[in-house]
Design goal:
Elements lengths: L6 E5 L1 H18 L6 E6 L3 H10 L5 E8 L12 E4 L9 E9 L3 H11 L5 E9 L12 E5 L5 E2 L15 E4 L2
Parallel strand pairs: 2-3, 2-5, 5-6, 6-7
Antiparallel strand pairs: 1-9, 3-4, 8-9
Helix pairs in contact: 1-2
């Protein structure tokens, strides 16, 4: 795929995979005697989610939810919309949210509050990337891959108007 000249590499696939394997090893240790439900936040986290669960050697269950706060924009609207919700009961269960990015924290704060209403035993957050300079809500990320600069990213599940998710590396759009 030919990329525009203003699209630059940020994180190479080999570094992504190495980091995911390291995160999985920690989760394996933390949950070795538990059976957590991993909740993939669609659509962006789907590739990270699939790669992560391949490295897990613990008993897990999986769920998918879809939220939207961007629409066709490159900035969050700060209004979170539920598109798809859980099909399983999560009461008294260990939950790990698998997210692609935590930037403002508004979407993940909304999600954690909604999930808390279902009375899970615990909720942990695993995010491939974080933009701490964009944070508007205080969010604890329990498992984190990369802290990244305040750039719009694409590839490895991240999109621009539903394009570029299939790129193996993570790129940023240079202003």
């Amino acid at each position: 795929m030919e990329l525009e000249k203003n699209i630059k590499i940020l994180i190479h696939e080999r570094n992504i995979q190495k980091t995911i394997k390291e995160i999985a090893q920690i989760i394996n240790k933390d949950y070795r005697t538990k059976n957590p439900i991993l909740i993939c936040v669609l659509k962006g986290a789907c590739i990270f989610f699939v790669d992560l669960i391949r490295y897990l050697n613990i008993e897990i269950e999986i769920e998918f939810i879809e939220l939207s706060s961007y629409g066709a924009n490159i900035e969050s609207s700060e209004k979170v919309k539920i598109i798809k919700w859980l099909t399983s009961d999560i009461e008294n269960r260990e939950i790990i949210i698998i997210e692609d990015i935590v930037d403002t924290g508004i979407t993940i704060d909304f999600l954690i509050n909604k999930l808390s209403e279902c009375n899970p035993l615990s909720i942990k957050l695993c995010s491939l990337t974080s933009k701490p300079t964009k944070r508007k809500k205080k969010i604890k990320i329990d498992y984190i891959g990369f802290e990244i600069p305040d750039k719009f990213i694409i590839g490895y599940g991240f999109d621009l108007n539903e394009k570029y998710r299939n790129l193996r590396d993570i790129y940023y759009i240079d202003d």
